[in-house]
Amino acid sequence: MDNDFPYRYKIEVDKATRAKEPKQTAVIDQTGCTGCEACIAFCPVDCIEIVPGPEHPDFMKLVEVDLARCIGCQLCARYCPWETIDMWPYEEGLEMAPRLTIRSLVYDYDPEQMHESAESRS
Q1: Which ranges constitute the DSSP H helices of the chain?
Q2: Is 23 exposed, middle or buried (0-12, 13-18, 19+ CB in 10 A)?
Q3: Which residues pair with 49 in a beta bridge?
Q4: What is the pLDDT of residue 9?
């Protein structure tokens, strides 16, 4: 992973890395995510992970895009039945992801920052 990636920590998963940086990346607004997992079925590179929900971790699950593996294909955004996945230019998507993320298992976002961002959109 590049040293200039904007997060301090990324959980390493046993999945293939992408060959080059995409023009755009998918970012999920987790405040609208129902955890239906429809996007997972369409992702050709398996870069969408299931994340325990903020209030009831076992019942209200969310999904999160692993930005280091997303290839920007747009399939998840196209087929999300709740329209909570947006495509962003790559650099802008890296900046937006922590603001739209309630809970992350892939990246070491500051939990307080995530919580405050989620409350400000409610």
Answers
A1: 38-42, 75-79, 90-100, 111-121
A2: exposed
A3: 64
A4: 56
SS3 content of the chain, % helix, strand, coil (to 5): 25, 15, 55
pTM of the model: 0.78
Q: Distance from CA of residue 76 to its chain's centroid? A: 11
Q: 96 phi and psi, to 5 degrees?
A: -75, -35
- Domain 24-121, what fold? Alpha-Beta Plaits (3.30.70)
Q: What is the pLDDT of residues 94-108, one digit of tens each?
A: 999 988 988 888 887
Domain ranges in the chain are 24-121
